[in-house]
């Protein structure tokens, strides 16, 4: 007998598990299908393990900045210990998530989902039916289509490396490339980052990206721009990274050249659900061309950055849609962050957008090196950039390059949302001295 | 000839300098009088130097927590270097502040102010007249009135110690005592903290204070409660701290038993301005009994914690009063923070207040040790406490004990102010994973 469900969720990452749990809590009969690790990319091989590695790196870098300033320190990253620490965290994620879903009364099915028709899918030998379907299958790293591509590794392998090699090469100029470069360099590897054009991290302000590149370079990362890599060759124990007039020997090569949606192996094209490498094509209700098929998080081609908090937001939204709400999705402010050395984060109207309308927007970049928060940590060239809407006399966007950028942008996100004026900021008392108590001097 | 000013400010700390600068910017003729360090307590011998010492301590403690978890670390505090680092910061404060005031066109007068009548004061040989007076003279450490009190040192000396002795004893149970204890202990001293009753940090929730005491004790701080110290004796190179049935040898003794307002030497009693050890008695306009005498910041007996952000707020308020505004002062939410090991911070309705009205308030204490922010740092027993107004279904107060307490309470302060519901918090996307992105799981 074919089991029938109100909703079947494909993919048990942050988006899928959130949607499944909410629908179940609202009384639906729910199944969730996962073919890989329960919990998905973020806690297994994404944000969380990355942050665990970064935590040790951050502690080392902060200690190094204070060396000779009162801290007698000899710190280095002990990669095998750090990996054991990470694995100690991640090993519980998949079984724990699976168990938790089962305990919530959700039917969990392990295997690959294949749609037979618009309401029927097979997982191996099992066939089930669903009134609604939520696609939440995430993204996978894209592999460059070059000669020797079989020698390329991805962030998945980086985050589970047993040993940190002496030299590593990272192909790419996006956030993953800059995060891996910072971690590996701090862990003692000689890092080369190669990007095919001259504008890495193109969503971020040029001035801040340039300063980040300068700082990484000063710390020993070799950054090579405008270099198209065409081939990877394997030597005995190492690799050669080859481009036009370029040939470099390295111990390991990572491709961090974007990610593609895991929606191409589900049989969706057979049942009228349109998709691309960016994910399932969705409307303002996160519905695909087939109205009872929704897509959320990384596997939805929605017009927002593919981030864990966005995945949760979209999951909650789709739950409401399935339960009968019909309003179009409206996204809140979405901050973005690169945990490199230092951190780079932004929110709201970007400097690039501001440059397209200089009558309306003013961009102000402040070097905050002499401020107590940065001075006490001996940070080098921390920058905060504000985008001001001159008509409204309001800060509408911000970017920050510093070891405090993550929290600084979180604060500014709240102040931008609530349209704080300079006077209101000065009347908002924070703990002193903290990142937040500095903000009155920015406005 | 006697020079006449629109406003004379007594005391050039954060409150006084802010008021003087604003009034001058608004076109007033302004003088400011300082008899000690320009810039006042906060940047010279308060928050800022304390935070500089704490920064190295924090880096050491965070590295220690990660030892064996991926960080190969041998860190210790090198006190003379740390002091040099601090002095490098503080040495610029007094001359820099003085210069900046002069450059702004404010008359700066060095010396002790003595009021002759309600509009006239003398500073040494100089006599000036003022239409308005702002008292902003701050607080000084209180010295216990016991035998051998001349052997007691205060936070002023602690923050400028050339060497950290092997053993130190701190008398007191307030925030200064707990901050000095954390720093000294991390710097390698054997620390004894002695408090006369059994409830140190009485403004903070008992559960969190108890946990803080436990953690300090585990890290080697001896905390002795219910012990009244009656005498300090000097031996050859050390001291004896003596109470009933108590006698302890130590290298140095600090009294951190509160602070008293610097308003008793100005001749205020002669001209009808009432004051106590808590400061100038003020009304809801921060006016003293003599209406053109205002008091702000630490030297005003206003019903708020004596903190730098409050000083700035009150200074701005009084500037508006002098320039013609007449509305009563209304204080925003004031968070408070203890930079001990770990940090302890709170804002809004306290657990104590909640216990007095259990029909209305619910107190929820959460151990967040397993959350990604704390897990990745291997923090021990981090606690977050929320006070919920059950009628409004709103979080109205919060306290936190963790190394992230400063920023956590800053965030909660904003969310409490804007009356966020659980649903609104979940729809507020922050950088992930950060302190702020955890908050949705608290609400």
Automatic annotation (TrEMBL), chains A, B:
FAD binds at residues 51, 298. SUPFAM superfamilies: FAD/NAD(P)-binding domain, FAD/NAD-linked reductases, dimerisation (C-terminal) domain. Its cofactor is FAD. GO terms for molecular function: nucleotide binding; oxidoreductase activity. Disulfide bonds join 42-47. Pfam families: Pyr_redox_2, Pyr_redox_dim. Residues 334-440 form the Pyridine nucleotide-disulphide oxidoreductase dimerisation domain. It comes from the Bacteria. InterPro entries: FAD/NAD-bd_sf, FAD/NAD-binding_dom, FAD/NAD-linked_Rdtase_dimer_sf, Pyr_nuc-diS_OxRdtase, Pyr_nucl-diS_OxRdtase_dimer. Keywords: FAD, Flavoprotein, NAD, Nucleotide-binding. Coiled coil: none annotated. NAD(+) binds at residues 172-179, 258. Belongs to the class-I pyridine nucleotide-disulfide oxidoreductase family. PANTHER family: GLUTATHIONE REDUCTASE (NADPH), MERCURIC REDUCTASE. This is Glutathione reductase.
């Amino acid at each position: 007998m074919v089991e029938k469900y109100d909703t079947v969720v494909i993919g048990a990452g942050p988006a899928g598990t959130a949607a499944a749990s909410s629908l179940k809590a609202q009384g639906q009969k729910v199944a969730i299908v996962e073919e890989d690790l329960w919990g998905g990319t973020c806690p297994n091989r994404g944000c969380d393990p990355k942050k665990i590695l970064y935590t040790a790196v951050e502690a080392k870098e902060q200690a190094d900045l204070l060396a000779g300033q009162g801290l007698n320190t000899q710190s280095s990253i002990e990669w095998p210990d750090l990996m054991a620490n990470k694995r100690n965290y991640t090993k519980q994620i998949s079984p724990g998530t699976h168990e938790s879903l089962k305990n919530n009364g959700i039917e969990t099915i392990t295997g690959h989902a294949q749609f037979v028709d618009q309401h029927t899918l097979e997982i191996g030998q099992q066939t089930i039916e669903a009134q609604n379907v939520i696609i939440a299958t995430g993204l996978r790293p894209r592999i460059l289509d070059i000669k020797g591509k079989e020698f390329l590794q991805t962030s998945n392998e980086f985050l589970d490396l047993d040993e940190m090699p002496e030299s590593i090469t990272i192909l790419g100029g996006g956030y993953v490339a800059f995060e891996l470069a910072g971690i590996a360099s701090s862990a003692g590897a000689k890092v080369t980052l190669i990007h095919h054009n001259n504008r890495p991290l193109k969503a971020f302000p040029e001035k801040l990206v340039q300063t980040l590149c300068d700082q990484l370079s000063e710390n020993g990362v070799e950054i090579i721009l405008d270099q198209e890599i065409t081939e990877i060759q394997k030597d005995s124990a190492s690799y050669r990274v080859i481009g036009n007039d370029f040939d470099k020997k390295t111990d390991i090569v990572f491709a961090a050249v974007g990610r593609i949606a895991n929606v191409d192996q589900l049989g969706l094209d057979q049942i009228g659900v349109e998709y691309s490498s960016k994910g399932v094509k969705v409307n303002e209700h996160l519905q695909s061309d087939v109205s009872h098929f929704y897509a959320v998080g990384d596997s939805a081609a929605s017009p927002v950055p593919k981030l864990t908090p966005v995945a949760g937001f979209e999951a909650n939204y789709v739950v409401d849609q399935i339960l009968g709400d019909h309003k179009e999705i409206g996204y809140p402010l979405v901050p973005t962050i690169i945990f490199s050395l230092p951190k780079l984060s932004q929110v709201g109207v970007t400097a690039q957008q501001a440059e397209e309308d200089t009558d309306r927007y003013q961009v102000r970049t402040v070097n905050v090196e002499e401020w107590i928060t940065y001075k006490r940590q001996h940070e080098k060239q921390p920058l905060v950039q504000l985008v001001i809407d001159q008509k409204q006399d309001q800060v509408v966007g911000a970017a920050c390059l510093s070891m405090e950028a993550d929290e600084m942008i979180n604060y500014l996100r709240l102040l931008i949302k609530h349209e704080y004026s300079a006077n209101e900021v000065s009347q908002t008392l924070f703990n002193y001295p903290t990142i937040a108590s500095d903000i009155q001097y920015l406005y």
